[in-house]
Amino acid sequence: MNTISRREVLKRTGALVVSFALTPSDIFGQAVASLVGNPSKEVDGWLSIAADGTVTAFTGKCELGHGLYTAQTQLVAEELGVPMDRIKLIQCVTGTTPDQGVTSGAQSHPQNFNHANLALAAATARETLVQMASTHWGVPADRLTPGNGVVRHQERTISYGELIGGKKFSIALNPNAKRKSPREWTILGNPIKRLDLPEIVAGRFEYAHNVRVPGMVHGRVVRPPTVGATVASSVSDIESSVNAMPGFIKVVVKKDFVGVVCEKQWQAVQAANQLKVQWKPGPTLPAQASFYDHMRTLPSRDTYLVDSKDVDATLAKAAQVVRSTYLHPYHMHGSIGASCAVADVKADSATLWSPTQGVYPQRDSCAMLLGMKPQQVKVIYARGSGCYGINGADTVSYDAALLSQAVGRPVRVQLSRKDEMANENFGLAFVVDQRVGLDAAGNIMAWDYESWSPTRGGRPGYAQPGNQITGYLAGFQPVPFAPRTPAPPPTGPLANGSNVVPSYVTGTVDGAAGGTGTVKCERMLSRIVESPFWTGPLRSPSRLQNTFAHESMMDELAAAAKADPVEYRLRHLRDPRLRGVVQAAAKAANWQTRPSPNRELGTGTANPVVASGRGIACVLYEGDNGYCAMAAEVDVRLDTGVVDVKRLVMALDSGPISNPDGLRNQAEGGALHGMSRALFEEVTWDNEKVTSVDWRTYRTFPVGFKIPKLETVLINTLEAEACGAGETSITVTAAAIGNAIFDATGLRLRQVPFSPERIKQAGIDARR
Amino acid sequence: MANFTFRVNNRGVSVDVDPATPLLYVLADELSLNGPKFGCGLGQCGACTVIVKGQAIRSCITPVKTVAGGEITTLEGLGTPDKPHPIQQAFIDEQAAQCGFCLSGVILTAKALVDRTPKPTDDQIQQALSNVLCRCFAHQRMIAAVKRYASGSVRLQADREVAR
What is the pTM of this model? Predict the structure, then answer.
């Protein structure tokens, strides 16, 4: 994922069934495969219509809190021509719903709302029903109108229930089925309210945490107290520390996996706290203070995403070369609810109620863990708290499965806050070096990029349970790390879609330029190193970190060229829709055209206590999956270094909009999530363990925080394909805020988070 | 183990549990309530919030023995999906949630505030919610929903537009 975007690989490998063009050792291969899965090609795999006309639709993309349940119900209603309240959508149950891999990568709209899968199934079904009515009445199909659950011919109607009720369609998805034009939409395109919200606000909704199975008992895990520690005591010694406690059922040890099961939850909590294990310490962790430099010294897996071979020569001729290093820490998903799952494992079958993003990958990988066949395992999606990527959902499902198998009863496992935070698959840290050459007029001549990012594990996919803590502790290995230096030359037409490629280059590989920018002299080198901690996809994986580096750098270049940051971006962008969102955000924000920093600020006031500024940033997510630009306005307290973000104005273009209010909700949440990550969040550790393990030590901001005014401009591009949106605004926030801080103060922040200490230090450094 | 009697959502209940058991586990496991959630178990996030004696408290760090004989209100105690309480309706009107897991903290803390302080200022609302987390960051809508409720402008039964 560092090197090649997820969506890129989908395209590169030809859509529905992904077979890899990448080498098997490519770090995120599994994750990419499981973005698509192997969904049904038959209408009956996606929907059925009962005699009373009610529709049951099946989807492999699940509601994660982003409104997808409602949007997919709108989609089926629109394409099939039935009212929404007659549709029941079943999401993510193995054996019942299509295998669509994992719900991630901003792929739910691309996969299900374009000309395939759920949308195509509904369109094919509608055409089939019209054909059936045509045969029934002996009237040509083109004289019939489907809609509202019936097919109409002049004054007479026949219902879908009468036409097919209870019977199978027995027809393949028809690639030629005509889709409704967005211009004809009556249900999609409207701000339909969330169908699940009445149950949620009333406290009735059943999350994974609320699943209760007859005979269920409670498990807790005991994770190694330090990174890489292994069990050194015998099972009987461990057991003797807790077996006299009330409600005790069993201590379960499997290699370095340790858990305890008790009748009641509180008993399990106490037993886990009291349980005595001798742990053999793991290796000493690299010091956090020098970790960014440390990464540069490690063996790495190197990949050129693009290399025009003329970068060094061009830089040598440049009127000016701007050099910068950007640093981004590990971030965590930090879900509000520590993860929870229930498993009922019997001798020859297993059922999991799991908040996983991918029930089929979970089924297959969990079967490996249990020593069962995938067909013996059933995984039922039960919604967790918002995950933003691979949080503890999969690993806690493994925990529950292992404990249930050991005790022969249904087991519910609730992770503690520390279990979750110390051991989750963090979003990647990054070191980004860039050198950009400008000509005498300040235009970009050459862009050189090199980054280091650490990985370990990731999504388990269908066959890699060792990619997360539980599978690893139980004896499985993560996807192997294979250093490769030097990098082979870039190949393939789509490497410009990589996360490491800035928007301003042409992304030309093998003669094909698909990038969004104008700069032809370009070299992008990614170096992946081994991480001491688990890593995995976190909302806008790698794209966020790189966009911080790219868009801050672009601001440095604009300042070097004494150009307005918006004008300077437009000067180097050729993609009309990316230009469109930049212009729309600037217009909505009443952007003042002038170079940064705001020179006028210093005149008359030698040292103003509060400095104000504005910044801009933009992205085409994953190279082709959602446009976003953001203008930020900030006040910076020069004495304390505290940043007050006053206003975030976003413009988004994600193709035809399914549900504008749902999209706004995602844009707003993404912007504030991005602000939390830019200003506060950072995983910390000492020489043996992660030390950010709760909400005091991993900082974010509360609902009562003084938040900026959020304004969202939606560009509804009806003729384009539907693409993702939920990972776009978060991607540009850090750079937009950082650029605004620069405009306000003249201080360039090259390290996230923008803590008051760092801002004050930048001020001290600047005065030296 | 000991027997405790109290009222939850206007219903008398009796449970036989370890007196130190956090109230959250009693509500979730003994009484099968879905409203209060386990977020952190440390009293830091608010997902487990319930109202006791007019105060929004953190049930994950409140031993059950300390609420014996008391009156507890969870999210379920306000309204139902069909007949939401005005503050729940305000959250529907504003579509003030994403995953919704944090809503016990946001809604019950705000309700306790408005019960105490019927016309809260913006600062008072912010202060009340200064220890409540939402990691989907639906903050702007949540604050709007609280203001809508506090201003008395929620129209029940309204806004059930379009969908069906």
Answer: 0.95
